Amino acid sequence: MIQLIESVKPSIVGVGLYDPLAAPKATLMATGFAVAGGDLIATNAHAVPELDPSRKQNIAVLLPGRHSSRVYEATLVAKDEVHDLAILRIRGHNLPPLTLSNMEVKEGLDIAFTGFPIGTMLGLHPVTHKGMIASIAPVMLPVANVSELTAAQLKILRNPYSVFQLNATAYPGNSGSPVYDVDSGEVVAIINKVLLTSNKESALTHPSAITYSVPVKHLKELLRSIR
Predict the structure, then answer these.
(1) SUPFAM superfamilies, alphabetically (predicted)?
(2) To the nearest whole number, what is the mean pLDDT of the chain?
(3) Residue 152 contacts residue 82 (beta carbons within 8 Å)
(4) Among 173, 157, 197, which Cα is nearest to 122's?
(5) What is the residue-wise DSSP string for 55-72?
(6) Beta strands at 85-90 and 58-63: parallel, antiparallel or unpaired
(7) Which one of 19, 56, 141, 170 is CB 3.0 to 4.6 Å from 211, fit for a cystine?
(8) What pairing do the DSSP bridges indicate for beta strands 178-181 and 110-115?
(9) pLDDT tens digits for 24-51?
(10) Domain ranges in the chain?
């Protein structure tokens, strides 16, 4: 695991908002990782911030550094709200991309994921957790009022897809983290949500240890759409 983690960490970035009028100017919201040629960053669609043009805001990609992080402007090039995936492009810097797996994932597969579980609270330092694929099951949406569902959510309800449940604890900042096979280091899924026991704050104080991830085949489809 030591060599594997060392090889994965250079590909991991923070995803957030850059606001020149705010303090701090860069705010981390989630995790992302380099794919394809290294100038593309995969993350969750829900992690991409909405921008206020009047404040000259930009999507930010944060790169960990030994003493301080570097911030790069990013643009959104593709988004799949049904599978909660997005691809960003950074200019002027290429990162070592992670390899996307072609394997047939089965329950019991040993995995790890790397990201920023609690944001920048303790500095921008990637954290790795280990676990396994505990279950492969159709995605579920909590439905309180059908009339309030988005078009993407309605599409999921009509045609649910399978997600991987992990027996490892993820936190809000882990959204967009790559889930990879510990033997090959290849990405098999992308973390997209954590089961909450009560409210959003409980994800930090009383984590459920139930984490869901989107199979990497959906990321591959999104990448093909921009090539």
Answers:
(1) Trypsin-like serine proteases
(2) 86
(3) yes
(4) 173
(5) GT-EEEEEE--SSS-EEE
(6) unpaired
(7) 170
(8) antiparallel
(9) 888 899 999 999 999 999 999 999 998 8
(10) 9-90, 110-224
Confidence of residue 6 (pLDDT cuts 50, 70, 90): very high
State whether residue 41 is helix, strand or coil.
strand
Q: Which of 88, 98, 113, 89 is nearest to 175 (CA)?
A: 113
Q: What angle do CA 169, 173, 177 make, to 5 degrees?
A: 75
Q: What is residue 45's three-state secondary structure?
A: helix
State which amino acid sits at residue 102: N
CATH superfamily of domain region 110-224: Trypsin-like serine proteases (2.40.10.10)
Tokens of 155: 């599409």
Tell whether the model's pLDDT for residue 208 goes beyond 80. Answer: no
Q: What is the CATH number of domain 9-90?
A: 2.40.10.10
For residues 4 and 93, give the distance between their C-alpha atoms in angstroms, rounded to a whole number. 23
